[in-house]
């Protein structure tokens, strides 16, 4: 009996250590692959995520490109809001894409930008007329590595979304009325993070 248990244990160890990709383990009960504890991306690679507001039809736009932001501020009636957060422009350890989708009205004006980590939400929005704006950056799906929540609010009457890392700004915007809380988009590095 002892030799049978030894062989069974050895077989289990060999199977578990050789059948799965490196860096993961399998939860045998749930039969799912669970990632090894999170590791951080290099925070010195994070760049500012700039925010603008305004335009022909009020919109809140985020971008890591100073060229894109400059093309909106002034010429298209947008106001520079500041650095909203810090994100990665390439996929770093433990980060996932932050997708951009946008809505265009009958006058060819962009009326709403949505930023999401959810491929499902992105695909559903594309089905109802939003357009694919690509990947704005990469952020954490959970609060790790000094990251903080990135909140999303919606004003459905104005077809507008708003994003902030500030709990106080989130609360004051909700108190204005017309806005609903859509929760946390993901987790970003603080705007003033310089390492």
Structure described in brief:
This protein is an alpha+beta fold.
How would you describe this structure to a colleague?
- The protein is an alpha+beta fold and 195 residues long.
- It has one domain.
- The chain has helices spanning 2-18, 66-72, 119-127, 167-175, and strands at residues 24-27, 32-35, 47-54, 59-63, 78-87, 96-104, 110-116, 131-139, 148-155, 160-164, 180-188.
- The protein has a 3-stranded antiparallel sheet with strand order 4-3-5, with helices on one face. A 3-stranded antiparallel sheet has the order 7-6-8, with helices on one face. Strands 10-9-11 form a 3-stranded antiparallel sheet, covered by helices on one side.
- The radius of gyration is 22 Å and the shape is globular.
- Residues 64-189 form the DUF5648 domain.
- Residues 1-19 form the signal peptide.
- Keywords: Signal.
- InterPro entries: DUF5648.
- This is DUF5648 domain-containing protein.
Biggest sheet record? 3 strands, antiparallel
List the uncertain runs: 1-36
Strand content: 35-45%
Percent helix, as a range, is 10-25%
Outline type: globular
Number of strands: 11
The Rg value, from CA coordinates, equals 22 Å
**Average residue pLDDT:** 80
The ordered H/E elements are HEEEEHEEEHEEEHE
Distance between the terminal alpha carbons, to the nearest Å? 58 Å
**What oligomeric assembly is this protein in?**
single chain
- Structural class assignment: alpha+beta
| Total domain units | 1
Reading side by side through the largest sheet, how are the strands ordered?
4-3-5
Total number of helices: 4
């Amino acid at each position: 009996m002892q030799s049978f248990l030894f062989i069974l244990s050895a077989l289990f160890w060999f199977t578990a250590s050789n059948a799965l990709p490196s860096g993961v383990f399998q939860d045998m009960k749930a039969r799912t692959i669970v990632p090894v504890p999170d590791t951080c991306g290099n925070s010195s690679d994070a760049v500012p995520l700039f925010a603008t507001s305004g335009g022909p039809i009020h919109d809140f736009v985020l971008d890591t490109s100073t060229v894109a932001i400059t093309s909106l501020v002034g010429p298209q009636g947008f106001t520079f809001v500041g650095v909203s957060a810090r994100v990665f422009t390439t996929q770093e350890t433990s980060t996932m894409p932050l997708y951009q989708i946008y809505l265009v009205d009958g006058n060819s004006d962009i009326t709403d930008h949505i930023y999401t980590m959810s491929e499902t939400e992105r695909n559903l929005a594309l089905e109802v007329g939003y357009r694919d704006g690509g990947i704005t950056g990469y952020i954490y799906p959970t609060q790790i590595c000094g990251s903080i929540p990135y909140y999303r609010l919606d004003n459905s009457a104005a077809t507008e979304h708003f994003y902030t890392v500030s709990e106080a700004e989130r609360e004051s915007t909700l108190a204005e009325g017309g806005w609903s809380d859509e929760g946390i988009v993901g987790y970003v590095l603080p705007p003033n993070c310089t390492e």
